[in-house]
Protein backbone atom coordinates (compact mmCIF):
# COMPACT_ATOMS: atom_id res chain seq x y z
CA UNK A 1 0.00 0.00 0.00
CA UNK A 2 2.81 2.40 0.88
CA UNK A 3 4.57 1.57 -2.40
CA UNK A 4 1.43 2.52 -4.36
CA UNK A 5 1.25 5.91 -2.62
CA UNK A 6 4.89 6.63 -3.32
CA UNK A 7 4.53 5.56 -6.94
CA UNK A 8 1.40 7.69 -7.36
CA UNK A 9 3.13 10.71 -5.78
CA UNK A 10 6.16 10.35 -8.07
CA UNK A 11 3.92 9.90 -11.12
CA UNK A 12 1.89 13.00 -10.23
CA UNK A 13 5.02 15.10 -9.66
CA UNK A 14 6.50 14.04 -13.02
CA UNK A 15 3.20 14.63 -14.79
CA UNK A 16 2.95 18.17 -13.41
CA UNK A 17 6.58 18.87 -14.27
CA UNK A 18 6.39 17.72 -17.87
CA UNK A 19 2.91 18.97 -18.77
CA UNK A 20 3.75 22.50 -17.67
CA UNK A 21 1.12 22.52 -14.96
CA UNK A 22 3.52 23.37 -12.19
CA UNK A 23 2.52 27.03 -12.10
CA UNK A 24 4.48 28.27 -15.10
CA UNK A 25 2.63 29.83 -17.99
CA UNK A 26 2.80 27.91 -21.29
CA UNK A 27 5.04 29.58 -23.84
CA UNK A 28 6.51 32.02 -21.31
CA UNK A 29 10.27 31.88 -20.82
CA UNK A 30 12.43 33.08 -17.98
CA UNK A 31 15.06 35.71 -18.91
CA UNK A 32 17.91 33.22 -18.60
CA UNK A 33 16.29 30.96 -21.25
CA UNK A 34 16.38 33.68 -23.93
CA UNK A 35 19.33 33.18 -26.30
CA UNK A 36 20.61 34.26 -29.71
CA UNK A 37 18.95 31.32 -31.48
CA UNK A 38 15.64 33.18 -30.92
CA UNK A 39 16.65 36.40 -32.72
CA UNK A 40 13.96 37.68 -35.13
CA UNK A 41 11.30 35.55 -33.42
CA UNK A 42 8.45 36.58 -31.14
CA UNK A 43 9.27 35.62 -27.55
CA UNK A 44 7.31 35.95 -24.33
CA UNK A 45 9.45 36.45 -21.24
CA UNK A 46 8.54 36.88 -17.58
CA UNK A 47 10.93 38.25 -15.00
CA UNK A 48 11.61 40.79 -12.31
CA UNK A 49 12.41 44.31 -13.46
CA UNK A 50 15.98 44.99 -12.33
CA UNK A 51 16.54 48.31 -14.13
CA UNK A 52 14.30 50.99 -15.64
CA UNK A 53 15.23 53.91 -17.90
CA UNK A 54 12.39 56.23 -18.92
CA UNK A 55 12.87 58.20 -22.15
CA UNK A 56 16.22 56.52 -22.99
CA UNK A 57 18.47 58.80 -25.03
CA UNK A 58 15.60 61.25 -25.45
CA UNK A 59 13.78 58.78 -27.71
CA UNK A 60 10.74 58.40 -25.47
CA UNK A 61 9.28 55.13 -24.32
CA UNK A 62 10.85 52.84 -21.75
CA UNK A 63 13.91 50.61 -21.53
CA UNK A 64 14.19 47.96 -18.85
CA UNK A 65 15.95 44.78 -17.87
CA UNK A 66 14.09 41.64 -16.84
CA UNK A 67 16.03 39.18 -14.73
CA UNK A 68 15.92 35.93 -12.87
CA UNK A 69 18.51 34.17 -10.72
CA UNK A 70 20.56 33.15 -13.77
CA UNK A 71 20.36 35.96 -16.32
CA UNK A 72 18.80 39.09 -17.79
CA UNK A 73 17.27 40.27 -21.04
CA UNK A 74 16.60 43.85 -22.14
CA UNK A 75 13.14 45.08 -23.12
CA UNK A 76 12.40 48.19 -25.19
CA UNK A 77 8.94 49.72 -25.24
CA UNK A 78 8.84 52.14 -28.17
CA UNK A 79 7.42 55.61 -27.53
CA UNK A 80 4.36 55.12 -29.76
CA UNK A 81 3.44 51.99 -27.78
CA UNK A 82 4.31 53.56 -24.40
CA UNK A 83 2.03 56.54 -25.10
CA UNK A 84 -0.97 54.21 -25.52
CA UNK A 85 -0.59 52.93 -21.95
CA UNK A 86 -2.66 54.53 -19.21
CA UNK A 87 -1.13 55.57 -15.89
CA UNK A 88 -2.13 52.29 -14.23
CA UNK A 89 -0.43 50.22 -16.95
CA UNK A 90 2.69 52.41 -16.89
CA UNK A 91 2.92 51.98 -13.11
CA UNK A 92 3.45 48.24 -13.61
CA UNK A 93 6.89 48.91 -15.11
CA UNK A 94 8.88 49.72 -11.97
CA UNK A 95 11.96 48.08 -10.44
CA UNK A 96 11.15 45.04 -8.34
CA UNK A 97 7.88 44.28 -10.16
CA UNK A 98 7.45 41.03 -12.07
CA UNK A 99 6.05 41.48 -15.57
CA UNK A 100 5.58 39.52 -18.77
CA UNK A 101 6.79 41.10 -22.01
CA UNK A 102 6.09 39.80 -25.50
CA UNK A 103 7.94 41.01 -28.55
CA UNK A 104 10.44 40.34 -31.30
CA UNK A 105 13.96 39.54 -30.10
CA UNK A 106 16.78 41.59 -31.62
CA UNK A 107 20.48 41.91 -30.95
CA UNK A 108 21.83 45.39 -30.21
CA UNK A 109 25.59 45.13 -29.90
CA UNK A 110 26.15 42.35 -27.39
CA UNK A 111 22.71 42.69 -25.77
CA UNK A 112 19.55 40.76 -26.62
CA UNK A 113 16.54 43.10 -26.65
CA UNK A 114 12.84 42.25 -26.76
CA UNK A 115 10.95 44.97 -28.67
CA UNK A 116 7.68 45.02 -26.75
CA UNK A 117 4.38 44.69 -28.60
CA UNK A 118 1.31 42.51 -28.87
CA UNK A 119 1.78 40.04 -31.69
CA UNK A 120 -0.73 38.01 -33.59
CA UNK A 121 0.43 34.52 -34.52
CA UNK A 122 -1.71 34.67 -37.67
CA UNK A 123 -0.02 37.76 -39.09
CA UNK A 124 3.06 39.93 -38.80
CA UNK A 125 1.18 42.87 -37.30
CA UNK A 126 1.88 44.30 -33.89
CA UNK A 127 -0.05 46.62 -31.63
CA UNK A 128 0.19 48.04 -28.15
CA UNK A 129 -2.81 46.28 -26.71
CA UNK A 130 -4.66 47.51 -23.65
CA UNK A 131 -3.93 44.70 -21.23
Write up what this structure looks like.
The protein is of the alpha+beta class. The protein has 3 helices and 7 strands; from the N terminus they run H-E-E-E-H-H-E-E-E-E. It has a single domain, classed as OB fold (Dihydrolipoamide Acetyltransferase, E2P) (Beta Barrel), CATH 2.40.50. The protein has helices at 2-19, 79-82, 87-91; strands at 42-54, 62-67, 72-77, 98-108, 111-116, 118-119, 126-127. A 5-stranded mixed β-barrel has the order 1-2-3-5-4. Strands 6-7 form a two-stranded antiparallel ribbon. The longest helix is centred in the N-terminal third of the chain and has 18 residues, at 2-19.
Radius of gyration: 18 Å
Level-1 CATH class name: Mainly Beta
Task: Identify the CATH architecture.
Answer: Beta Barrel
Strand fraction equals: 35-45%
Largest sheet, order of strands side by side?
A: 1-2-3-5-4
Outline the low-pLDDT stretches.
Answer: 10-23, 120-131
Record field, number of beta strands: 7
Oligomer: single chain
CATH superfamily: Nucleic acid-binding proteins
> Which structural category do the helix and sheet elements fall into?
alpha+beta
Domain unit count: 1
Mass-distribution shape: globular
First-to-last CA distance: 50 Å
CATH topology: OB fold (Dihydrolipoamide Acetyltransferase, E2P)
Number of helices: 3
**Residues in helix, %:** 10-25%
Amino acid sequence: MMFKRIALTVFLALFLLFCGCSGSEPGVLSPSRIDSSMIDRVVKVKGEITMVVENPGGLGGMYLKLGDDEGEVDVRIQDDVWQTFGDKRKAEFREGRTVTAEGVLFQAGRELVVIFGKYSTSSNTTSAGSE
